[in-house]
Each structure stands twice: as structure tokens, then as C-alpha cells.
């Protein structure tokens, strides 16, 4: 298993099938999923499919939505990283509720962004959020991203963030 980054409190690493139950619990939490896609909790099969896809990305290209592990406890906290299954390179993060509000989201995302840009040379990065998800928008802004466009998902407006130098003409879905 590859460790992609360590921070003071976190490890960003590859996924293993041993992560399935922990990720399934995170994905089944209605509060965690409220600002994701259609806002509905996901089942165990969703977690299995997600982890299989991340393992395939590890093997074929190295970058993915990296698993976040708490360095002290070894607990799977969630993910931070990149995916392109819906087109543009999407930078996202998801943490289980016990880790909200402690700065872990920014810490993990700053590390994942550094790995993506410096290890894998990723560019034209976007991050999307529903406007009411102020926690995620704050993380985007702290990483130096600005709103570069708007979009829509499941009939709900989305704000699209990126690095303006990479998107001089803005984002057009």
C-alpha cells in the first residue's frame, strides 16, 4: 500500500478492501451525504464499487480520491483527492462526522492538492459544491481557489471553483 502524504495528524494512502465497512458507514450517514449528489445515503454496494474503482485508479494511474487515515488511531476518516468519471477533473473530499470541525478537511485537502499537482502534474482542477455547503466552500477558498463558474446537478445549482490562472475564460460545463 502506497502512502502518498503524511501530515501532522493524517495519512493519505491507497485504498484496500479492508476499508469497505468503514467507508460504507460514512456513506450511509444522511448528514454526511446531505450535500453529495442527490443528497441520499448510499448502501454497502456503493462503498464496494467506489473502493474497487479507487483501487483500479491506484493501479492504472496512481492518483485517485486518496483514503484518509488518522495517524494516531489508524481509523479511516474519509477521502480527499481527484476523480474524472464525470468529465472535468473534480477535486473532492468527504469525512465522517466525528472528524468535522477540527480542520481535518483542509489539512487532508491541502496535502492531496500538493500530491496531485506536484507528484502527478494535475492541472485544470475543479471543485464543486452546493452553495449551502459553506464548509466545503471555505476549504476551497483556503486552498486559493475562486469561483470560476456555475453548474447544476439533480436540479440544484452548483458553484464551481478552480484556480483562475488555469481557467482564464471561466468554467463552461
Describe the structure.
- The chain is of the alpha+beta class and 173 residues long.
- It has one domain (3-166): Aminopeptidase.
- The chain has helices spanning 20-28, 30-33, 44-60, 104-118, 134-142; strands at 3-6, 10-13, 65-70, 76-83, 89-95, 125-129, 146-153, 156-162.
- Strands 1-2-3-4-5-6-8-7 form an 8-stranded mixed β-sheet, sandwiched between helices.
- A hairpin with a 5-residue loop joins β3 (65-70) and β4.
- The longest helix is centred in the first third of the chain and has 17 residues, at 44-60.
- The radius of gyration is 15 Å and the shape is globular.
Topology:
Layout: E1 3-6, E2 10-13, H1 20-28, H2 30-33, H3 44-60, E3 65-70, E4 76-83, E5 89-95, H4 104-118, E6 125-129, H5 134-142, E7 146-153, E8 156-162
Helix pairs in contact: 1-3
Quick description:
The protein is an alpha+beta fold.
Keywords:
alpha+beta; Aminopeptidase; eight-stranded mixed sheet; 31% helix; single chain; globular; 173 residues
Amino acid at each position: 500500500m502506497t502512502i502518498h502524504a503524511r501530515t501532522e495528524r493524517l495519512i493519505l494512502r491507497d485504498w484496500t478492501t479492508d476499508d469497505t465497512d468503514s467507508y460504507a458507514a460514512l456513506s450511509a450517514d444522511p448528514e454526511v451525504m446531505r450535500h453529495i449528489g442527490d443528497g441520499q445515503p448510499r448502501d454497502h454496494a456503493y462503498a464496494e464499487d467506489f473502493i474497487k474503482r479507487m483501487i483500479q485508479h491506484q493501479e492504472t494511474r496512481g492518483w485517485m480520491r486518496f483514503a484518509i487515515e488518522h495517524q494516531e488511531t489508524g481509523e479511516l476518516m474519509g477521502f480527499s483527492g481527484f476523480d474524472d468519471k464525470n468529465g472535468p477533473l473534480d477535486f473532492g473530499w468527504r469525512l465522517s462526522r466525528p472528524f468535522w470541525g477540527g480542520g481535518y478537511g483542509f489539512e487532508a485537502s491541502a496535502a492531496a492538492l500538493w500530491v496531485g499537482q506536484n507528484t502527478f502534474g494535475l492541472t485544470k482542477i475543479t471543485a464543486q459544491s452546493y452553495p449551502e455547503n459553506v464548509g466545503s466552500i471555505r476549504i476551497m477558498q483556503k486552498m486559493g481557489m475562486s469561483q470560476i463558474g456555475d453548474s447544476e446537478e439533480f436540479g440544484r445549482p452548483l458553484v464551481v471553483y478552480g484556480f483562475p490562472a488555469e481557467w482564464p475564460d471561466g468554467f463552461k460545463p
